[in-house]
Amino acid sequence: MDLTVVTYVVYLAVSIGLTIWVARTLSGNGQLFLEDVLRGNEKLAGAVNHLLVVGFYLVNLGFVALYLRIGTPVESTRGVFEALSGRLGVVLLVLGVLHLGNVYVLNRVRRRGAMEREQTPPVPPQGWTAPAAGA
pTM here? Predict the structure, then answer.
């Protein structure tokens, strides 16, 4: 069998496996974070979490597919490992950047919500006082 094809198969298997593992990890651990960001609305947090996971799959698997082609034929076992290490390294970096981007955006939303909650008075006004006539 051609070593280039072997490299493609291993690259796809590892990349897809990593993508699924990272998506499941982010989904499971991100649910609590989203519930906090969305002020305890579990139903909305679940929907947003699902949408983020679908978007994560689409972006990352699209990148994996576009990055599949190797410019030169792989002719040795060493070449297989070199091609795989370069390709998988880039896939891991893209996974990390996507994850950090999601966390950054959600943290900004969370901070904005916390600031809005701090601006709301803890107790509604009890009454109204008229200004003094001589002041």
Answer: 0.72
